[in-house]
Automatic annotation (TrEMBL):
This is NADH-quinone oxidoreductase subunit I. One of its GO terms (cellular component) is membrane. The keyword Transferase does not apply. GO terms for molecular function: 4 iron, 4 sulfur cluster binding; metal ion binding; NADH dehydrogenase activity. Transmembrane segments: none annotated. Residues 38-67, 73-102 form the 4Fe-4S ferredoxin-type domain. SUPFAM superfamilies: 4Fe-4S ferredoxins (SSF54862).
Amino acid sequence: MIGALQALATTMKHALNGKTFTVEYPEQAPEVSPRFRGVHKWNQERCIWCRQCEGICPNDTIHIVMDEDRNGEQYNLHIGQCIYCRLCEEVCPTDAILLTQNFEFTGDTKHDLAFNKEQLKNVPWYKDIDPLEAREPDRDAWVGEGDREVDYQ
């Protein structure tokens, strides 16, 4: 009983001090961490269709369709299935995939969250993001200083 009263006293002390911790979300955008994992950004120009992202995805979020000559025909992404583990971004040899800081996406059904490469070009939260520039806070952890040599240690 004493522990419950102490917890209630601590809660009331913080609740009544006048500081707010919430954000008026639609009017004011919340501040997200630089390492936040949000919606995928896929760059068709960088993609070499190696299918490593499809193979490493634990939820089958990414599905790539190839033709007989191993040319990529279709890149399908199901945002609703994604667990944002970032494995697809890490395995991509050409930095064609990026998990952005965007968390604002909705859909009425699960089919509204499945996109092919043509639909991805028209999604508003998909434009104006350069994968390499957006990844800069993270890249310094594994890219060496100076002439930007890759440091694999």
